Amino acid sequence: MLQKVLAAILLLCCVYGASAQTIARDELIFLTSEWKGERFPDGRPKIPDDLIERAKKVGIEEAWQVLNNEGYTCQFERNWKMVHDDVPVVGRALTAMFMPSRPDVEKKIKERGQKQGRVGNTNAWPIDMLTPGDVYVADCFGKIAEGTLIGDNLGNSIYAKSHNGVIFDGAARDLQGLAQIKGFNAFVRDFDPSYLKDVVLMGLNTPIRIGGAIVLPGDLVISEREGVLFIPAHMAEKVISTAEFIGLRDKFGHEMLKTGKYSTGQIDNEWTDKIKEDFLKWLDQHPAELKMTRAQLDEFMKKRTW
Fold first, then answer.
1. Listed residue (38, 170, 30) closest to 100, CA to CA
2. N or C: which end of the chain has fewer CB within 10 A?
3. Gap between the Cα atoms of 28 and 30, Å rounded
4. What pTM value is reported for the model?
5. Are 256 and 278 in contact, with CB atoms under 8 Å apart?
6. Positive or negative CA dihedral for 74, 78, 82, 88?
7. For the segment 60-90, what is each residue's pLDDT rounded down to a tens digit?
8. CA–CA gap between residue 229 and residue 289 (Å, rounded)
9. Segment 119-130 mean pLDDT
10. What would the DSSP string read from start to end of 110-123?
11. Residue 5: which pLDDT band, with cuts at 50, 70 and 90?
C-alpha cells in the first residue's frame, strides 16, 4: 500500500513539478501542443492582442457553430449571473481550481505558498499572476454561500492587473462595489454577502472544468448574455475568421431581405454566382464591416463551400 502511495506522489511530482498546484511547463506545452505561436514563460499559449480585439466583435453563436462543427462540443457553459449585462469578458484564460478545504491540506499548501513568496489567502494567488488581457477563470465547484472568491477589493486588483473580468463557477460578494469598477464584469453562479470559507486552491494554471466545459490555460474566453465559450488557443484564429465571415454574410443577407432583392429561400440556401457577386460588391461599399484584411477574406473564400 505504501508503495502505491509513493508511486502516486511521484507521478504528481512528475506532472506538476515541484509545486503540485502549478502545472509543469512541459506538461502544459504537451496539452496545448496544437498551439504553434508565442507562449508565456510558464508555457501558457499567448494569443496575440490583435486577435483578442477581433474576438470582442465576434458573436458567440457563430463562434460556437465553428467549434461545434470541428468536434469541440464541450466548450460552452450557460446559466450565469453578471455584474453588468452589457460588458463582455474576452481574453486569455488563467485558470484556478478550488476544492473544499481540510485543515491538514490547507496548512501544507499555505506553508509552501509562503516559501514561494505568495501572500494572503489562496484565492488571491491567481490574481498575482494576471497580465493585461487575461481572464481569471476559476472552478469553485459551484459553491455560493461561503464560496465568494472575490469582493470589490480583489475585483479592483483584478481589473488593475488584467483590464478584464472573471468567470467563476462559484460566487462573488460586494455586488454594488464591483458594479462601480468601470470596464469590469463577473460571470458567477450567484452573489452572496458571506465571506469565503472552507475553500482552498488546489490547482493554479491547470486544466479545469467549468460546469460542462473543459478549460485549459491560454484558451480564448468570449462571453455574452447567453453564456461563456472557451476556445482552444490553436482554434482561435480559425474560429474568429470564420465567425467574422458568417457575421458579414448574415448582415448582407438581412439587408437583401429587407430591400426585397432576394427571397428568404435564396438567401438561406446555397448562393448562386450572382448573389456571391452582389456580396462582394456589398463588401466594397461597406469597408468598415470587414475586420480581416481583404487578402485574408479572398483566401478564406477560396476554401469556403457556400
1. 170
2. N
3. 5
4. 0.85
5. yes
6. positive
7. 999 999 999 999 999 999 999 999 999 999 9
8. 23
9. 94
10. HHHHHHTT--S-GG
11. very low
